[in-house]
Amino acid sequence: MPSIPMSIFRPGVALAALLLAACGTVPVPRLAADPVDAAAQLQWLDRVSWGANPADAQTVEAMGVPRWLGAQLHPGPAVLPAAAQAQIDAMRISTTPIDRLARELEAQRKAAEALSDDDAKTAARQAYQQTLNQLSREAQQRFLLRALYSPNQLQEQMTWFWMNHFNVSTRKGGLRELVGDYEEAAIRPHALGRFRDLLGATVRHPAMLRYLDNAQNAGGRLNENYARELMELHTLGVGSGYSQSDVQSLARVLSGLGVTLRDDGPPPRLPAAQQAAYVRQGLFEFNPARHDDGAKTLLGAPITQRGLAEADEALDRLARAPATARFVSRKLAIYFVADAPPPALVERMSATFLRSDGDIAAVLTTLFESPEFAASLGRKFRDPVHYVVGSVRLAYGDRVVSDVAPMLGWLNRMGQPLYGHETPDGYALTQDAWASAGQMATRFEIARAIGASGAVLFRAGDKAPLEKPPYPPLAASPVVRTEMASLSQATRAALAQASAPPDWNTFFLASPEFNHR
Amino acid sequence: MQRRDLLKMLAAAAPLAGGAGRLMAAPAAEGAKLLVVFLRGAYDCANLLVPISGAAGDFYRASRPGIAVPRPGEANGALALDADWGLHPALASSVMPLFQKKQAAFIPFAGTDDLTRSHFETQDSIELGQALDRRRDYRSGFLNRLAGVLGAGPLTAVSPIAFTDQLPISLRGDAQAANMALGNVGRQGIDARQSQVIESMYRGTALAQPVAEGFAVRDEVLRAVKAEMDAASRNAMTAKGFELVAQRMARLMQERFDLGFVDVGGWDTHVGQGAGTGYLANRFEELGRGLAGFADAMGESAWRDTVVVVISEFGRTFRENGNKGTDHGHGTVYWVLGGGLDAQAGGRVVGEQLALTQPAALFQNRDHPVLNEYRAVFAGLFARMYGLSPAQLDHVFGGVSAKDLRLV
Questions:
Q1: Is residue B325 within 8 Å of B271, Cβ to Cβ?
Q2: Alpha-carbon separation of residue A509 from A3, A168, A388, A389, B251 (angstroms)
Q3: Which residues of chain A are within 8 Å of residue B266 when distances are taken between CB atoms?
Q4: Is residue A217 one of the residues assigned to a domain?
Q5: Which pTM was predicted?
Q6: Structural domain of residue A489, as residue ranges?
Q7: In which element (H, E) is residue A117 found?
Q8: How far apart are CA A306 and CA A295, in angstroms?
Q9: Domain end point (choices A177, A210, A243)
Q10: Interface pTM (ipTM) of the complex?
């Protein structure tokens, strides 16, 4: 196949011009080498975004990789296609503030429990559970719509990364109604901001406080769960030198941080001396009566503040620790560069982290500017969520799907459901966790599901007939046509054996090239 | 340590002398099958194997005012295993009968010397099975090294598999290992021709082996599920959850695989774990039903050659926490099941033990101590099951000195 000139993409649209104008003031990364040919630009797009699609490829072509990256690192508000935004706007999680939603649900639960007729009670309980399921499903759907169509692709990639880093799971009780707000209020706004702000937002979010049992952590009845994971998984990293007594100290610092469903009534009956220290913000509560007010030492230094301010002092200390800079930088490098990231790169990222006081966009700039990043393109195995989202972006571009439910099903089958990782370590970011024999067999089934009948994404309802043809026009995609030249001989030979377009699509989505980014 | 326990220890845990006559003769390795069941999340062993007598029983109940399993004979009380220990009542109709048939044993005070009390850290360190004072090699799990050793000698055609979505760390390494989750086996859309074409794209790449193995195992599993459906159409009971998985494991291990791994989650009971009934009891019940179903489905002959070891990353605090749950602890209890357990082990609580009668007996005044280090225990088991030499054992668990609990 002849090489494809850059002009294959559709003529420029207003969006590209708009982005060009908007990014005039943001810093532009200085890349080790500026990729100018279409195939190289696609590799950058494929790694930085949720997967290359024709519309974004056109934007990258128009702006050039450095300016596009600058805009991605410093995004403005995301404007989604109207058809995607309309789906989001129709969701209950979009229209109801989280505190009101939580109280409405509590009222629904209590009303169900108060019923005296057994059948009626059973039905009301079921309805309550279905409501909770629906709310977490809305959050999953909203995430996928943004990953597919947000122009702020890097922000969406980082939103997933931090959701995974500060993992919560809807498999635990009391989380299904909260997970959407957790992502929306605690994670996405800080995804490219300061690490300390992000950390602080997770500590005050009811989803995290419930998930790691801190809502039950009180002076005299300590629960160490959150304190341990906060140091092991969220900041310092295991084996970085903190001790069991640091875990206990931090648990005491965090005692009294919890969740309340009370509305604007007076605080619970507190001794006058403690009234002023009581804090309630939305569903977050700091209750001084549940706080261990004794003296504490954390990481070798005393905690000097009292009450809720102790938590901020401890988080400052943890967020600024060199171990945290290294731990977070390394994880970012695993996500964006390689399963075993070059130590020199991690060192440079850590230095940026410490110098910038944890500015995530600055740390990523160091990463993107590195020759190690450029050298790694095309070699990172797609985990299921990158595989599924990337496939749909490639297959259908900016044609907005009307039903993302099949994508949720594919993610479940591949073992990476959104908000579904039970334990706080989050999903593994490395190939060895996703490329075993059984997983590869399942992956090819998904390749076929998308390649042969991707039209399930455009159905009005479960039973509605599929549009015709039921498969995506993959071979005609300008992105695919650009990539054809770089496919291996074995892949091209396989594609040549395809009996029909669904077969061709399946093989392309199953190919080694597409399974890496 | 009490004198009585010291004697017990001396009797039960004589270290393996190299090539001692006690070792199972090498030919017995043929047909030997091993299944490791990993309870992820650190199950509460103190409510599985319950101290029932004297001061130990009193200390146990006083430490757990809201969650202690009642004494034998009381409502939802423990089932007496011997004078000292009782079993959680949720296992009355599953594991208890195996224990009575001398096909089950428990090893209390088992675990690792890893003290992070981190689930992930400790699960990894157990699955790796490497000496703790060395840099970890995440590409080498202990079951994989076992497969390597067996493949080079006693079990040339060794065929390991994990019944999990992901290949667990314990099976990662140089030896070929398959994996496939069995809970939800759906209809397959990729046909034989497509499988061949896809395989051809990966030939010569780093993923060639898992891609080829994936298609092969898929075909095996489908055959097993078909047999199940044939049985179901003859009105056999249909199982769910872990019980269903366990039956399918048995079918595959009976026919094709001899080294298996599966994990079961849901054990991290920080809050409201219950006592003789409740959340943890339900988890035990489901697990027990699955294990008994596995034994049954293996059939008498294969079960005689099979050993199932149930492990967990660590135990939980001996005392109940402020939320009627328990926090991360240290020592735990391993279960050993099999149709051919040694008379010395079957129907007994084995290994080095200690009566926990007072706070000073607890490790760091909070947990069960570890007296039976898991690498030493597994090495002792492997020596007996497969007739491995000290050099071979050292390859599986570097630097280990095996502890022979005479399990088989």
A1: yes
A2: 21, 31, 10, 12, 33
A3: 422
A4: yes
A5: 0.78
A6: 380-517
A7: none
A8: 9
A9: A210
A10: 0.92
